[in-house]
Amino acid sequence: MGLGLGAAVVLLAAGWWGLTVQRRQMTALVQLGAEHGALIVRSATRDAMSRNDPDAVQRILESVGAQRGIERIRILDKQGRIVRSTDPSEMGRTVDRRAEQCTVCHAADQPLENPGRADRMRVFEKASGERVLAVVEPIPNEPD
Question: Would you say the pTM of this structure is higher than 0.85?
Answer without folding.
Answer: no
